[in-house]
């Protein structure tokens, strides 16, 4: 053996609370493809406000998740093997999510909504990331992945969010939510590895500032996009805005209920897996399995 031959250096590891036995499993599922499936224009409890909010959120996913994938993949090859495997599984999950939301968004358009203005705003927002340092895009991805994970917790833990919803569409959201929880630490661990040479103060300063900016933009855009869809149904004015705020802040109040986990992001030593919520993954999986075994509506049981 040539003692002078080069040995491939292994990337150093990082300290992370991500469970060592945790597995990320892409689930190739399809929703709403059956012939005759008609979820209705207001598929969430015949409520135009709730339906418009989720439709507006869904419209962000195909382009947004493509951005997440590219941002994380840019750092994949420099990370340790275990994290590389997690990134590959993360990418597979996000690609499938995008496909299913493309199908959902198509059904939104088929219901008669013009989504072009919303899609243009999303495109323009993502165009602003071109030419930015890759680490900045990774930071944005890590933050938005935290947003999706803490909202996903709500979607699974609190059945009120999808009360009286079209079953197929509600199941799509729960499936998406369980996988967001499952891979919630991937972008953050990639960020920790990519910034391992930074001081803790520098890392905290950058991520905290970006979180404040992204939070403002996220809720401003979702609020505006929801009102855009509502206006197409003839709902506009102060009363409609109050109803939307009530939906977000009171009942079911997803924006209010994620405030505490949002604040935790700013604490020293934060990591998404400081809270092990894998029981929610199991809960969503068991509910899905039960729905497959017993698809009959309640009134026929």
Provide a descriptive summary of the structure in words.
- With 301 residues, the protein is mainly α.
- It has one domain: Ferritin, CATH 1.20.1260.
- Helix content is 62%, strand content 0%.
- The protein contains eleven helices and no strands.
- Helix 1 packs antiparallel against helix 7 and helix 2 packs antiparallel against helix 5.
Strand content: under 5%
Report the end-to-end length measured between terminal Cα atoms: 72 Å
List low-confidence stretches: 1-8, 296-301
Q: How many beta-strand segments?
A: 0
Query: Helix coverage percent of residues?
Result: 55-70%
Shape: globular
Q: Which whole number gives the mean pLDDT? A: 90
Biggest sheet overview: none
Count of helical stretches: 11
Radius of gyration: 20 Å
* CATH topology (fold) name: Ferritin
Q: How do the SSEs run, as a string of H and E? A: HHHHHHHHHHH
């Amino acid at each position: 053996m040539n003692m002078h031959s080069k040995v491939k250096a292994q990337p150093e590891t990082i300290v992370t609370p991500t469970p060592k036995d945790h597995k990320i499993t892409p689930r190739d599922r399809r929703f709403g493809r059956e012939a005759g499936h008609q979820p209705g224009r207001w598929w969430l409890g015949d409520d135009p406000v709730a339906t418009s909010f989720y439709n507006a959120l869904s419209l962000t996913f195909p382009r947004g998740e493509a951005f997440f994938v590219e941002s994380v993949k840019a750092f994949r090859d420099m990370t340790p093997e275990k994290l590389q495997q997690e990134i590959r599984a993360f990418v597979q999950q996000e690609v499938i999510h995008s496909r299913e939301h493309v199908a959902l968004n198509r059904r939104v358009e088929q219901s008669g909504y013009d989504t072009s203005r919303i899609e243009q705003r999303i495109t323009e927002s993502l165009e602003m990331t071109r030419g930015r340092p890759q680490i900045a895009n990774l930071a944005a991805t890590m933050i938005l992945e935290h947003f999706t994970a803490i909202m996903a917790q709500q979607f699974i833990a609190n059945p009120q969010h999808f009360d009286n919803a079209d079953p197929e569409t509600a199941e799509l959201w729960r499936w998406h939510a369980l996988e967001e929880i499952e891979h919630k630490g991937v972008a953050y661990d990639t960020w920790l590895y990519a910034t391992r040479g930074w001081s803790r103060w520098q890392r905290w300063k950058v991520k905290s500032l970006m979180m404040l900016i992204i939070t403002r933009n996220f809720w401003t855009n979702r609020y505006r996009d929801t009102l855009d869809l509502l206006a197409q149904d003839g709902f506009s004015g102060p009363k409609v805005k109050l109803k939307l705020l009530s939906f977000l802040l009171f009942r079911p109040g997803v924006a209010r209920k994620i405030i505490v986990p949002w604040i935790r992001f700013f604490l020293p030593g934060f990591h998404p897996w400081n809270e092990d919520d894998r029981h929610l993954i199991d809960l969503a999986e068991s509910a899905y399995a039960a729905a497959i075994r017993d698809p009959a509506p309640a009134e026929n049981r």
